[in-house]
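[step 3/7] fold_predict: job queued, chain A
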Amino acid sequence: MNPKLKIGILAAAALVLIAAFVFIDLPHTWHYALPRRLKKVAAFILTGGSIAFATVIFQTVTNNKILTPGIIGLDSLYMLIQTTIIFAFGSVPLISTSKELNFLLSVGMMVLFAGLLYKLIFHKDGRGIYVLLLIGLVFGTLFNSLSTFMEVLIDPNEFAKIQDKSFASFSNVNTELLWLSVFVLVLVFAYAWRFIKYLDVLSLGREHAINLGLPYSYIIKRLLIIVAILISISTALVGPITFLGLIVANVAYQVMKTYQHRYIIPASICVSVIALAGCQLLAERVFDLSTTVSVIINFIGGVYFLYLLLRENKSW
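[step 4/7] structure written:
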């Protein structure tokens, strides 16, 4: 089947699910409910698009289809920031209650951490992407340990607020944050567009990319900064969704069956919107909001991750 036709089918499926989410059981007071549902749809597209795009870039750079950007510790850093805010300032002061301030602080800290990590790893020759992954894994474990240490010391009511932030939620997305995210993401996607043409060559591996004349280190550094910004914005907007990138990127590879990123990237974004809209429908209509989108996605993603490991093991 033509790749463009496959993308068209995925886009149509995403639109159908979005329409179902918006219009199923729409109450008579639609003028109240409709803007809130549309706000969630905007969050689906922004978050899903960012995570899918960032994961495809990250897996191409690392040449590994079971890694996600979360391995460098950005999700763990987000939880450490939220825990530190509650631990240091409690839940009353402005920094704990202002979503705008929290959003800017979280994005700024995560991008700063990623920038320092990349600077530390890439400032000398001979250090590569796998050293970055190992050090990121160590930092992620450190951040989780610090968060756990502070969680056992704080008040139980404040601990419950931290637990709420550890699960992604599309129910209370701030409208101002959506507009701010749109503005930043448009700039990031416009900047990233110039590097998309190199992804097909990068997928061949470091040696082949260098032999074909690509300025490998220059492109890799900028792509990783783009990944860090996209993941930081999506995490700060709705919360961490660990397995979403793994699911949507690998489903896109299996559906498209091509190495060309001009097809894989839009397909993964469509799959991501389908996953978020479908899981939100399940959470609201089937589970009656007794669970969250991130719990459903992480459960499906965990099973899918085991399937990928077993499949790779058979191929060895």
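[step 5/7] annotate
The mean pLDDT is 81.
Residues 30-62 form the longest helix (33 residues).
exit 0
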